[in-house]
Structures are given as C-alpha cells and as structure tokens.
Amino acid sequence: MLKEKVIVYTGGTFDMFHSNHVKMIDYARGLGDILIVGVSTDELVCSYKSPPTIPFEERIEIIRALKQPDIIIPQHSLEQTQLVKNLHIDAFVIGSDWLNKYDYLIDLGVKVFYFPYGDGVSSSKIKMQIAENYQKIRINADNHSNPDIN
Q1: Which of 10, 114, 130, 135 could form a disulfide with 93 if both were Cys (CB 3.0 to 4.6 A apart)?
Q2: What is the mean pLDDT of residues 111-138?
C-alpha cells in the first residue's frame, strides 16, 4: 500500500515565517501523498549564514501548527543523499535560491523542484525592513523637540 504513495520532502530554515514559506509548503503538498518537512537546526543554519532570529524550537513548532505536513523532522545537514534513501523520497522541493544545488538527487531517481521565490517576501527582507524602521523611529525620537522644555 505504501509503495503507491508519493513521498515529498521540503525543508528550510523557516525563519521569520512568511507567505512564501506557506506557498512553498503548499506547492510541495500538491506534488504527492505524504509531505515531510525538514526544519534546519540552529547549528546547521549557523554553518552557512548568520544565526536565525527565531530559535529552532520555535520554528519547528510553527511548522507543526500547519495542516499541510504529515511529518516534521529536524534537518541537520544540507547534504540530503542519506535522508532521501532512508525516507524513500520521490520528490524534493527547495527554494529557487538553491538553484542547481540539489541536482545530484536526480541521479537517485528523485524529482527535484526549485520553488520560485521571486522578488517577494523573504526573511532577510523582513529583517532589513525591521532594522530600517527601527532606525527611522530612533532618529525621530532623538530629534523631536521636548514640549516640557522651552
């Protein structure tokens, strides 16, 4: 019975969870019968970029609250060969910012899909916008006149 099921895997940091994350998970859900979502651990994320804003324990709970995934697991590595073999993954979905990085999975019989994030929302953009807005508020607060002092 399980042999007839298409198993799809998608993974990511899912920091500053936003609509493009939802769209990618929805896309992955539509490709198969069983959806496994991997959430990158803090240690993994720190191995290739700055630490996530939201800790791993919080990020994985956000993904657990979604209706789309059947299984949620920690993602400890960017190298996915063993995971694909162990979990019998048929399709692998990742954001287009990783374009061509997972093509090696094709040799294992896995269909690889690079989800197009486009120019929309991203965790990095959200972080930059928060920093910019904070700076504007701080400048305004520092430069306004005090009505109590004449």
Answers
A1: 10
A2: 71
